[in-house]
Amino acid sequence: MSAEDTLSDSAGAMAADRFVEINYDDVIPNNVALSSDKQLQRALEGWRPNYLGWWNNMGPVGYQASQVYLRTAVGVDPAGWAKFGYVKMPAYRWGILLAPKIEARTIPFGRHKGEPAWQDVPGEHRALLRRLIVVQGDTEPASVEQQRFLGATAPSLYDMRNLFQVNVEEGRHLWAMVYLLVKYFGKDGREEAQALLERQSGQMDNPRILGAFNERTPDWLSFFMFTFFTDRDGKMQLAALAESGFDPLSRTCRFMLTEEAHHMFVGETGVQRTIDATCAAMVKAGIKDPHDVEAVRKLDVVDLPLLQRKLNFHASVTRDLFGADISSNAADAFSSGIKGRFNEANLKGDDHQLQDATYPVTRVVDGKIAVEQEPALRALNARLLDDFIADCQGGIDRWNKAVEKAGVAFRFVQPHKGFNRRIGEFAGKRISPAGEVLTEDEWKAKSGDWLPNDDDMQFISSLMKPCHEPGKYASWIAPPRVGVNNQPGDFEYVKIA
Ligand code: BYC
């Protein structure tokens, strides 16, 4: 009997008959002693069938019976934490893995700084901690829901496999947060774990908690931009939570960051390969002007100005995920030792308590962009957003290098921090990508040049034709430089059933 058969059998057994002997460690890769933790087993027995139900109803549409070449996290050893192999998605072994414990770890910031890290939930911070874990957990299934229709238009089997890899790992990240909820938050935690399967991306009555996770991901360009920008918000938030004084959260997030890196890789290289295909087609056709959109689109590739508009949209929507620049919630989470800054433990020349420090916050004052000093403790969201913007720049520089190398005169730029914002200092303000404060009329006249318009979306949609033959790629995207796990170019990443 294969591992997969064992798994589907035991999934059924968990749902139907809780007295059947299950080898938990085979079914659920873990390093949390699941096989000897009866309480955790019982909680997961209640939740896992509902999770599988959610996966089947709200996960990737089609392809659930196909064999997909996926990596599965089976341990936390940096040298060999994952295994590659064909698996049907519903039989993926979603596990619970925490980065190794650091002995004698202390809380690195806030008013408990220097005290031993908590191994259990500190009573006084319980509600705050639970809220942050729920918000983090909510984004994971949300992104799977947003991406559920993309398989049918995959530009190659390689890309289809990457999509499914991202999806199953977002599923695992949900497991990671559910583990914390059911292990440490009793009945409330079990209820929250169930509610994570009930909210739905974009649903009117019971939507996902954060704005960007209710947007549609209608096409592959959106998917690549999402994994470049929005998964990077995931990286920044997980990094801030990895500093937490609540050690199980810190360890969970540290391991999740290992997987998150691949998601941003999918985004960065997806856009990069789109740029490569465009530049190669332009050079071949002798088109010098990247703004000659009509000529470029005739080649069935994505014009670079359109890519810039997509970048503007995804960058700005993702920036809203950082919350209000000035936030008492963020100040509380920091002072309580629950959520730190990016790279907190390694920040030098800093008291890690922020009692007197200030931080420069950009906002509109008297109709002009101004920078004002604010108490650093209240400006933590603004700071994390600045760290995010800096982190994005590396990838954008690499895209620009590719354009330059092809000899095309075009540069991608990040829009001003205030562009197209709904949350924070710039909510309700009209700011151009270059950072000019605009009137409503000026905004209306120009915003179609800065954000994807209907024509753009229709054009992208017209390119979304599936290409499901091994080794072949849709016109608008170049093949990757290397295969997954060094597989050859014509490798059949998905055996479509
Ligand atoms: N939409 O003081 P405020 C990822 C709410 S992505 C709707 O401004 P705070 C992933 C906020 O919840 C990372 N509501 O902000 C990526 C609060 O409500 P309550 C996800 C919003 O609390 C790709 C109120 O407004 N992880 O992992 O300092 C694929 C006032 O809040 C929004 C996290 O976010 C919004 N955009 O910060 C898969 C980490 N923004 O509580 C996965 C955990 C704010 O008063 N979450 N609100 O009812 C947090 O640290 C914080 O909740 C936030 C907000 C940074 C999100």
Describe it.
Helix content is 47%, strand content 6%. The protein has 497 residues and is mostly helical. Strand 3 and strand 4 form a beta hairpin. Helix 7 (220-242) runs antiparallel to helix 8, helix 7 (220-242) crosses helix 12 and helix 8 packs parallel to helix 12. The longest helix has 39 residues, at 247-285. Residues 1-20 have low confidence and may be disordered. The site of benzoyl coenzyme A has 26 residues, from helix 4, helix 7 and helix 11.
What labels describe this entry?
497 residues; mainly alpha; 5 strands; two-stranded antiparallel sheet; binds benzoyl coenzyme A; 14 helices; three-stranded antiparallel β-sheet; disordered N terminus
H/E topology pattern: HHHEEHHHHHHHHEEHHHE
The side-by-side strand order for the widest beta sheet comes to: 2-1-5
Strand content: 5-15%
Rg value? 23 Å
In round numbers, the mean pLDDT is: 93
Uncertain runs with pLDDT below 50, 5 residues or more?
A: 1-20
Q: Give the N-to-C terminal Cα separation.
A: 21 Å
Number of strands: 5
